Amino acid sequence: MNIKHNDCLHFSNIDAAKGICRLTGNIVEIDSDACASYDKKAKCKFCKNFTEESTDGIGTCVGLKVNDWVYGELNAVTCSSYEEK
């Protein structure tokens, strides 16, 4: 998996294609490669409780004991079951 700017804690979305790096203030494309200041954002796709079941990033979360379908890109900063893979 390539690490992209939108996987970084310092990235803030502007729209569907670009965002701002909160460290540098530069505008960056969402899907461009992350820089050396990369700090991993908590997302479902990085959690050990997430099992990806399709090529479009949809999977199952078993951490909340409800086995719900979730998107891997979902922000998991406030999830009580988040555990880094």
TrEMBL record:
Residues 4-33 form the 4-hydroxyphenylacetate decarboxylase small gamma subunit N-terminal domain. Its cofactor is [4Fe-4S] cluster. Residues 42-80 form the 4-hydroxyphenylacetate decarboxylase small gamma subunit C-terminal domain. It is an enzyme of class 4 (lyase). Its EC number is 4.1.1.83. Keywords: 4Fe-4S, Iron, Iron-sulfur, Lyase, Metal-binding. One of its GO terms (molecular function) is 4 iron, 4 sulfur cluster binding. It catalyses: 3,4-dihydroxyphenylacetate + H(+) = 4-methylcatechol + CO2; 4-hydroxyphenylacetate + H(+) = 4-methylphenol + CO2. Belongs to the HPA decarboxylase small subunit family. This is 4-hydroxyphenylacetate decarboxylase small subunit. The gene is hpdC.
